[in-house]
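#structure-requests
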Amino acid sequence: MKKAASVVLSLIIVLSLAGCSLFSLGDQDPKEDPTAPQQEDPPAEQPEQPKEPTFVWVVEPKFMFDDVETINVYADAGYSGSNYLVYKDGDRYGLLDGALNIAVEAVSVQQPFLCQMDELHIISTTGDVITDVTVPADLTLPMGGHGGGSLEYVYDYENDEIYVTYDMGYVKLSEAGATGPPAYFPVRYAKMLPDEAFGGMYPEYRGDYDFCDSGGALVTRENYEYADFFYNGFAAVQKDGKYTYLNAMLAPISAFLYLPSHGELHNYKAGTVVAPAFSYRFMGGYAVVRTTEGYGVIDEQGAVVIPCTYQKILPMPGGRFAVKTGNQWGVGTIE
């Protein structure tokens, strides 16, 4: 009896297993081969990589001039927002348009201290004529010096006080009822001394620079050899004769790698140096820089987008650059 029950139980188990197998096979797609390799899911679509910026010629290099420079109203401007360039022909000066065509033929300049090729160019005291030659009607002349207008900010390091130029003199920023430019601005270290001849105070400069916030508090202690105003979000600073740029967080975007883009600026009438050598400002997301190998261009992250191998590069409006290579001038842009 026990043996018969055992046989029946074994038969039930076998039939149950067979039923499961038949059930599973019944559910399987008859067209599907279970031994075939399974098809993998297609790879996820990769995001398109950003295009690397490249330099392209808009006007191929073909023009030859004794020299070409930007137009600056103030000797310390260091930036050209003008739609024209100055060219030199011997001791004569004229204007080029944005395609390097001659817009104003070169003329002799009667006041050379107003028309030298190292930053103070081809302007008269009224700013609208070149000697007796009227400039084009659409000529624009960038105004304002180092981005802070005609204002200069001085840090009196002995009394921890900011002074600002005011009505042909200097007054404490706190007493003038004025505030500095937005965000941060450069101040030059000086000892403020009484001006016995004209009254008020005058600065005895120490020679170094730092930055203050709009409330007049010193926010850096770097003692830069030179510091520019912020322009388009960046300020050029100099140490050991080399430049880099600070971003809006006062962080350098590169090491101090770059030489001044231009030589020292002179007041030729007085025979004195009126400003230190400087570096170009950012315009349209790029800045012209210079190394011992030549001129190039960097972007806002400090990456080199035009290698420093060209004889000269000048910034132009609209994201263009006048470029000298092989002693010929052309116009290029970054795409």
